[in-house]
Amino acid sequence: MRTLLIAGNWKLNPTTTEAAVALAEGVKTGLGTATDVHVAVAPPFVFLGQVDGVLEGSPIGLSAQDMYWENSGAFTGEVSGCMLVDVGCTHVILGHSERRHGMGETSEVVNKKLKAALEAKLIPIVCIGETKEERLGEQTEAVLLEQLSGSLAGLSPEQAAGVVLAYEPVWAIGTGLTATPEQAQAAHAFIRGWLAKVFGEATAARVVVQYGGSVKPDNAVQLLGCPDIDGALVGGASLKASDFLAIIKAGQEVTARGKA
Ligand SMILES: O=C(CO)COP(=O)(O)O
């Protein structure tokens, strides 16, 4: 069975080092040494080093929220995979919808970043998902197909097995409008079907596919209990240690009882 990954995407929060350290300390203390689910936090770039110090000795992974595909050079404002590894990162989020839609990031760009992340030995969390208009226009599968085939182009099955995907319907992000477990499971099954077709059944069975979009303590058990949902990428609720810990606990419950 795939191990669940519960990751907190802090986005552009919090705004001070002190608050970032306090949040990381809260998660670390609350989690202890539990390892039955994988856990990671993704603070803004500037806090990564300090948060890494806090997380020392804990099983919590450290994720960046983006990276560039070149290692070094004249690329003002960018941060590379080897730099992220140097400050302690284990994961990197790529192609978040706030970057795809807010900053014009294409699947081609995500693909370059993904290959660089794998080269740097970071675990990439590649985000995909449709907007409200696309869902209403029955374009969900077409959008997922474009984002999957574009973002994962040229990967070997072995490389693909090491990629984490995050299905995040844009209409559910930060809106309180969570996809129902049925809607989420249907999208996840579609994603796993695509993986099986392109990379083979054995690889598809290994890929961790998270759900993201208004995951909260009160809906986490239902979502995480779905057969093809292998974790959560949590935004707002990851900014409060007690809420994030409650979502992790939901993952632990689902793991302990086993999936259907
Ligand atoms: O975008 C998200 C995680 O990457 C989800 O954000 P919310 O949990 O705030 O909806």
UniProtKB/TrEMBL annotation:
InterPro entries: Aldolase_TIM, TIM_sf, TrioseP_Isoase_bac/euk, Triosephosphate_isomerase, Triosephosphate_isomerase_AS. The keyword rRNA-binding does not apply. PROSITE patterns: TIM_1, TIM_2. Pathway: Carbohydrate degradation; glycolysis; D-glyceraldehyde 3-phosphate from glycerone phosphate: step 1/1; Carbohydrate biosynthesis; gluconeogenesis. The keyword Flavoprotein does not apply. GO terms for biological process: gluconeogenesis; glyceraldehyde-3-phosphate biosynthetic process; glycerol catabolic process; glycolytic process. It catalyses: D-glyceraldehyde 3-phosphate = dihydroxyacetone phosphate. Substrate binds at residues 9-11, 174, 214, 235-236. Its EC number is 5.3.1.1. Involved in the gluconeogenesis. Catalyzes stereospecifically the conversion of dihydroxyacetone phosphate (DHAP) to D-glyceraldehyde-3-phosphate (G3P). PANTHER family: TRIOSEPHOSPHATE ISOMERASE. NCBIfam families: tim. Homodimer. This is Triosephosphate isomerase. It comes from Aquisphaera giovannonii.
